[in-house]
Every structure is written in C-alpha cells, then in structure tokens.
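Obj.: predict assembly geometry.
Materials: sequence records (below).
Method: joint structure prediction, all chains together.
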Amino acid sequence: MNDMTQSNLERALKIVGTRPARPDGVDKVTGRALFGSDKSLPNMLVGRVLRSPYAHAKIISIDTSKAEALNGVKAVITCADFEDFPSEFVPNGEMVVNLKDITRNIMAREKALYVGHTVAAVAATSDEIAEKALGLIDIKYEVLPHVLEVEDAERPDAPLLHEDMITIGVEPAPKKASNVAKRVEFGFGDVEKGFAEADLIVEREFTTQQVHQGYIEPHACLASVSEDGQADLWCTTQGAFVVRNFCSKLLGLSAAQIRVTASEIGGGFGGKTVVYLEPLALALSRKSCRPVKMDMSRAEVFTSSGPTSGAKIWVKIGVKNDGRITAGDCVLKYQAGAFQGAPVGPGAMCAFAPYDLENVRAVGYDIVVNRPKVAAYRAPGGPISEYGVESVLDEIAIKLKIDPIEIRLKNAAKEGTIAPYGPKLGPIGMIETLEAAKAHPHYSAPLGPNQGRGVASGFWFNIGGETSSSITINEDGTVGLTLGTTDIGGSRASMAMMASEELGVPMDLIKPVIGDTNSLGFNFLTGGSRATFSTGMTVVRSTREAIEELRKRAALLWEVDLDQVEWVDGHARLIAGDEPKTMSLAQIAKQAGKTGGPIMANCSMNVTGAGPSLGTHIVDVEVDTETGKVSIVRYTAIQDAGKAIHPAYVEGQMQGGAVQGIGWALNEEYIYNDKGQLENAGFLDYRIPVCSDVPMIDTVIVEVPNPNHPYGVRGVGETPIIPPLAAISNAVSRATNIRFNELPLSPPKVLARLMHG
Amino acid sequence: MEYVTPKSASEASQALSQEGAFALAGGTDLLVKLKTRFVSPSVVVDIKHIPNIMTIKQSAEGWWIGAATPCAEIVEHDSLSKNWPGVVEALSLIGSTQIQGRATLGGNLCNASPAADSIPALIAAGATCVISGQTKEREEPVEKIVTAPGMTTLGKGEFIIGFKLPIPKNRSGDAYLRLIPRSEMDIAVVGAGVSLSLSEDGKIEAIRVALGAIAPTQVLLSGLEDIFIGKEPNDDAIQKLVSLAEKACKPINDKRGTIEYRTKIAGVLAKRAFGIALKRANNY
Amino acid sequence: MSKTQVATCINGDTHEFLCDTHQTLLDVLRHELDLTGSKEGCATGDCGACSVMLDDRLVCACLVLGVEVDGKEIETIEGMSSGSGLHAIQQKFIDLAALQCGICTPGVLVATKALLTKNKNPSEEEVRFWLAGNLCRCTGYDKIVRAVLEVAADMRNA
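Observations (raw structure tokens):
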C-alpha cells in the first residue's frame, strides 16, 4: 500500500501533468497575499539595526545608554543579549552551519567582520526614533586591515579574520591559523595516469564574482514575545521549522515556546534559509514585551544577507583525439564571507558529475574574507565549478573539431556511472537532454554576424530530508492538506494535484495550506529542489492512508470485509456482489461521525532517494564588437524533471533559473572599494536582468523517471542556473574567437579583451 | 520638513530662497536622496502648481517645454517628437515607464549628474532654459547650468521653469545614444547627442555634438566646424569626430565603467549618433 | 511634528488621512491605509513592485510624497478586480502561470493594465520595454510576456 517505489507511471494520469490554476493564485493577483512585511500587530514597535561601517574592526566598547534614554526607545540589544556557543557544525540543507558563527553573524561579538555586520539593534515607537537611537549608540572600534579576495586571504601575511582557525581536512593539521577554513577532495582513479594517456590537455583558470540571489522581497519579520516567554514569529523564510530551531537555540527558548508562521515568501533562491532579523526581533520583543517588526532595506539585503561566493578556479581536462576524457582535475577556491561555509563541497562534488570518468579529482578550499557570510544560492557551488569544466570542454571540442554536444554525449554519465563524489548513479537523463538539444531546431538554426552559439550542461544532486504533512477529509467531502515546506513557486498546486490524482477527486475540492511549526512535525526547509519530491512523497503516502481509511469506513457501512472494497475515481466500490455498488468520498465523509470519527492521515518521514537532475542549455549571443555589449538572441533550456507534476511551473523554474544564470554571466557582481564597502548595494547598479534584456526562454522537459518517487519526480529548481554561465561564455568565445574565462562578461571586460586580446 | 505648493513663480522663488529649501518636480531623484538621507531639506517646494511649468507649447519662436512636465507626456507629444527625435529619445531613456510618469527635464538638469540622459541631447539641440528668480527671469543655454556633479549656476531662490527649443530648419536631424550594460534601467556609462542641419546640396551647415558621463559635466565638442561645415560628411570626417570625442573625455574609473572604456565608447557613440542624425536630416 | 491632511480618491473611494511630509505614497498606502498589495522591494524606484496609477499615469508609489496626492486619483492592485470577479489580466496570469513567488505580481499587473489601456496591440518588444521597470527574479519574464500578449489579444477580440 505504502510502498513509495510503487509507480504510478503505468496508469493513465488525469491530473498530474496538467496545468491547473494554482490554489494561491487569486490571493497573489489581487494583492491579498500577505508577505513578510505585510502584517502588523497592535502596540507594535519598529526594530532597526546598527551596522558596522568597517570591513574588519575590533569592537572595543559599546555604550547604549544614550540610546536607551531616548524617549520612545523600548529596547536596545547587543551581543551581550545573546548566549555564546562552542563551535558545532549542524547541517542546513546543502550547507553546513555553526552556531558559534551564527550567533556572531546575527550580532558581532569580538569583531565586526564586514561592512554591514550587525553590531546592535533597537526597538522604538517609530522608525524615526529608532533611527535616531542608532545614532546615539557609541561604539569604539579598532580598525584592522581587511581582505576581500581569496588569493589575498590565502597569503601567509594576510590579516586573519579568526585568529584560531586551523584548516580542516589537511593532514597533518597546520600549526598556524589561517583564513583557509577547510580543504575538501573528491574523486577516484589516477589523474596523472589519465593525463599521460591524453592526446590533448587543456587547463585554464577562471574567475567568478560574488553574486546575490536578488529576491525582490527584502527580509522581514514580526516577533511577539509575551511576559511568560511564549513567542510568535511571522517571517519570510524558506523553512519555518529551521527558523524555529535556530531561534530557540540562539535565544535559549524551547521549541515549544516559539511558534513560527511562514508568510508568503517573495523569493528566496537559498537566501532565506538562515536567520538575520528573526532572532533580533525576538530578543527586542522579549526585552520590551511588545511586538517588534523589522525589515531590511534593499541596501541592507545586499550588504548584510547571504550572497554566494566569488571564486578562483583551475580546471584541467585531458582527452583522446576522439573526445573521450582521460582525466579531469580541478581546484576550487571559494569565498566563504566572514565565516566558514562556502559551498565548495557541493561545487567540488558536482564539477565533473555530468560525465562518466575513470580518473577524476576535485579539490576545494573554503576561504574566509571580509564580506557577508555566504548563504545558499540555487544549486550552491555548482554553477561556479561546472562553469569552469564546461568551458574547458568547449575549448577542447573546438580544438578537436568535435561538435560540443557530441563530445558531451561521448562522455555522458548514465545509469551505473560512478559519480565523482562516490555513489553509483541510478537512471539519469544526461544523454536524453543532450539528444533533445541536438534535435531541437534551435541547434541547427543559422547564426547572424557577430553571433555565437554556446552549449553547456549542468548536474545537480537534489535532496530529500525530514518532511511531514497531513490530510483531512472534511465532512462535506472536501479535503484539507497541511504542508510543512514553504511554497516558494507553486508547490501548493503540485501537492494538491498529487492528492487529487490519488484520491480521484477534483483538485478544486482540495485546499492546501502551509502549516505553522505547531501544526506538523519538523519539516526541513524548501531548498535542494526537495519540496515537490519530499513533501510530494508524504502527501502521496498520507493520501493513500486516507484512502485506506475511506475504504474501511465504506466496508463498515456496507458490512463487508475491507478487501471487498476498492477505491476507484473518488469512490469506494464493492468488488463482489450482484449489482455494482459505489459510495463517493463525500458520502463516506458525511457519515464519518458514526463510523469512527473524523478521517485524517498524516505522514512523516526522512525522505531519501532524490534523483539528480541534468540539464543542457543552448544560447545564441550577439556581440557588439565596438562596445563589448553582449545580447542574448535566443535561449533554449532542456532538463530532465523525472516527472513534471505541473509542467508550467517546471518550465517556470527552468526559465527563471536560466535568466538568473544570464544575470550571473553578463552583469551581476559585488563591487567593493578599497575600504571594503560595497559600491553597488542596490538594484540600479547590481543589474539583475530586466524584461527587455532577455528573449523568450524555450524549454524542453525531458522525463526520465526517478524510480524512488511514486510519480517519478526528481526536483527541478536548481539545475537550470548551472548551464547558463558556461553556455554564454562559450557562445561569446565562439562569436569572437577569444576564449573568455572571467565573469561577468560585462561590456567593459569584453571590449578590453576584444581590444587587447 | 515643511511642504509647500506655491501657485506662482515668485512665490516659489521666495520659498526656495529659504535655508535648506529643495525644489520638488517629479521627485525621482529627490525622493531617493531623502530615503538615503543624502539630503535633509527643511522645506520641500513642490513647483508643479506654477502656471506653464507642466505644459508643452509650440509657437512661431519655437517650443516651450515646461520644466516639470513628466517625460511620459513629452514622449507622447507627436509633433515635438517629429521635430526633435533625439531630444525626445534621450528623455525617454530616463528610467522605467514608472519613472517616466514622474521624471522631468528640469529635474534631470538640476540634479546635475554627469550621466543625465537629457542634457547632452538638449545641449546638442541648442536648447535654452528659462530660470525664474526672486527678482527677475533669465534665459541661459543648457550648457551653462551644470558646473560640477550636483552643482549648478542657479542662485538662491532660482529654479528652472521651462525649456525652449527652436523649430528645426528643413534638413535637420538630431539623435542621442547611450551605452548601458543592460537594455534598460541603468545609468549611462557614456551618452552622446548630435544635432545637425544640411544645406540643399547635402553639405553640413551646422553641427553640435555633446557628450555625457565622460567628464564632471557634459561636454559640448569644439573644433567641429573645420571638420564638417560646408562639407559633405565622409569617413575621414567621421574618424576625426571620433578622435575629437575621445580627446574630450576626462572620465573616471567607477562601478559603471573604466577610463579606457568610457573614452573608447565616447567615440563609438558620437559616430553612431552622427550617422542617425544625418539620416534623419536627409529625410526631414 | 505636525501632520498634513490629505484627501484623495483610491480605487474609487475617497480617503482622508494625516501624513508626515516625508512619508511616501507607498508608506501611506501600506502603513496608514493597510493597502499592502503594493510592495516595497527597493524604495528607490528600481524594482516597480509598488507600481500604482496616479491620475492615470503609471508611477512608483515609493517616489511620490504622500502630501503630493491631495486631490488626486490613485489606483492600486486592490482596485483591479471588480465586484464581479478578476480582471482579465489577473485571470490570464493565473492561467498561464505567469507568477511564481508573487511579490512582483501586483506591480506587474498594474503596469500591464496601464500598457493595455494605452496600446491595445503591443509587440513583444514593446511589452518587454514597458515592463523593464518591473523586476521579477522568479519567472525569467517568459510567461509574464506571454500572458500580456495573450490577454491583449483576448481583450481586442472581446
């Protein structure tokens, strides 16, 4: 019954695979949906944050007395209001976090480690008073030399961010502290032997800049802690339960004392998986015994949330003349920001993962610098490392005069391939996406002058994790679903669709809601492309349990054995008997009171068996050779979704990821001045793609089912941001006959190469 | 912060002569500066209620464009767009559709950004502005207003009430081009405005070229007469224009572009805008 | 600090409110009138999430002072659907999945309605440039542009 490997792929699907209206659609097109900063409470205070003006400074003293004395100020907090923690690593999605670091990131302790680092916060009766109070907080700093780039941070004489940090993963352990937090290595075989067998070896260095997720909704929350320590927190987050756990630890409250309700979330892309304002608002509310609302300005989002790493990487690939790879090797150096935790592990794991290799090695370094601590960003680490590998592969294809899709097909990973990070892969769609790319009319369309066509593939693992959800059959025959993973891009629709498919009742009878942290067991956050896969798994399982219960109730009413009742198209049906007998879900529900009470089911599990998703993108660019400006002329994204529950939202993920990748490739970057201040902390100069920057993004959904999910779902959200970086760089390189190895490909950088080679 | 809505130019001048007074037209720059605490006015003088400050008029002497007319309204004005396509293009490039609904020529000039899109086009077109003051009104060429980033020649209590543009002669054309990294929503890395008129036999009679974002203020190129006047334009002359444009550059390295890049682009855009203006002149 | 009294018409209803001179129209809508459908993504006119109509002109509410709107007419996302149901544009955005997280959606819808009032048959390029001031980070704009083009055609044929 509940065998999750039981496949539904053989039977004809009625709902899954169609494109119904999303349940939250009307609220979102009418302005009714409540996002992080859309809620208020009576007697509410405004919380504001004082941030470090220095990139690296020792905090000598903090005097808040003048601010506290200001009329209208109800609470001032500093690091003294938070407990300290020993160093302890806990997994958080595709990243690992350390409470010692987190408590220092939400509120600086010994040192301020980046411009924008929180040093104090106030709650006051108005924004103006709060702002005035910030100006009255007297902080004495001792300014220290700072370091922004990995190559500077690695130097033996570099200023140290953490004087006690000894590199992990190096044997024997270094005696001296450094800014290198960690070394990781993945791979197998003998790369030196592989290179010795190669007919051609290409090695290149690449640079990528720090970029931000760029969600349009700034971080915001509303906290209310009562005199007895009961806390309510409303916030925009990818995971209410994760926020609860962070906050309960940071504030010394029990999990039961904090109820977190996730607002509608205005984009996250990994950036809303950690806490910034939430513990501050709770601490301010606890101190003032009044509700406290906080939100970040756009500038604060850029300076003080969690962008992803800029990086320096080195890639070396050896091939035979027929294009078969003999060895792949890379070294990745990722910026962690002020605290360790760059996504270099996943970056190293997936660098060569689209390929079936005999000799492969990927080494990564996690390096702290005086920038904001990085957070997850859509396939954290993957776009950077795969950009390097896919670029070198393109250069090899040109040198060997092999079609770029053919060279990938020749080396493609497939079922049974040992992935560079260890496991043997199940069925995966690398070959299928490449074949679909080759067959797509885009691939054979003619190119105009100064145009080039680039191709690149991308691999992402996807994850499962702790998940729970529940289903209730209402007495009128409608259905409620309570889900524990934030709906960030339409997952309420896909959950309702799977429940509808299982139950055989129309989707509009099913109402899915996202529960707060008291309504379900722990749910890990929405990230790692896990929501449709993992929450979908619990929805299918709990729905099947509910069906079992519905059959039981029907059997009771008919006074037959359970095995005499089957469930077909939303009805219980008596298998044997003289005449066909059926009872609808609504009829059973109506009599639930006299057959044993309300019908509901829930499911909680630690979901495993996520299926990697592979994608291949094709892009045509046009280069203005006099100005260096690159335009995207045509774009096609192809991806293996396993199974698209709601194809429109799968396409939406592919299109959105592709355009984020376009931004990363062309214009987005953190620009720091020599004082370590971010010069472009706003949408004006950070330059995410606007509507007129991009063409239609054509999509092809390939479906190689994941055998571990009842509908074959893999998860699609992250993979599509991986291929664009290399695909665009390859296209520009082919258009200009100059090999580019630095992002972003902004006009000044491209023109400089066109002028100087 | 006080907010006043004077109904006449003299009332406005009086209000603006107070310490810490700022004029508010479309507000697209001022409100950003308020938000970021870049300025803290004691009084904001909303000049939009003054007669003629939000009107577009054509007369025998030429065009009047009220200084507080939203760009969107100017762009929708067909005959002005036919007369001065380059000027209208330039101001249509200021910000998004939403910004266009509010942004004004007076504001774009008085904000005095080196990268302002409308200014090079207005200078190339030979536009003047009418300045209202406490005691008198004066008229100045647009190139006489900005003295440095954020600085103008406007005195205490003075504000711009409108712009004047001539009716172009036959066989005239103007154009404005800017380089931005994206297709929209960016500040110009370089801007170039060209206005020219041709004689009946296709020789250049008059030409003005102004560049933006390549120096602390917009630059009106000098030395064009020898190259162009009385001659039919050819590749050699255009190459000289490119060199003149490049030589006029005194740019800075910043987050939007490098010295080398801006210099190179100034020449490219001057050349391209010249080509468009010439084509328009031939068809006008 | 004394407040200024402002009388305005929002979505057809008269509203009077007291306003600090430094408050923006967006502050007033969201904090004084509880019209939170207009979103604040940047407060500097760069994202378009606060797009509203002010006397029939599309503007960013964050770049208008509250005191400026005295005597003016304002339309926000809350006024788009009539009593009889969703506006055709709203319905099309749902039908074509032209929203993901939904934070930019109110602004995009208000801007789209302004476009289709002015231009009943916009080209793809016109749609893209008209909406360039409405940042969306989820959709890659594809489905938004398709929805606008398709609803424009529907409205022409209606």
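Conclusions so far: Chain B has a mean pLDDT of 96.
To do: check interface contacts against the pulldown list.
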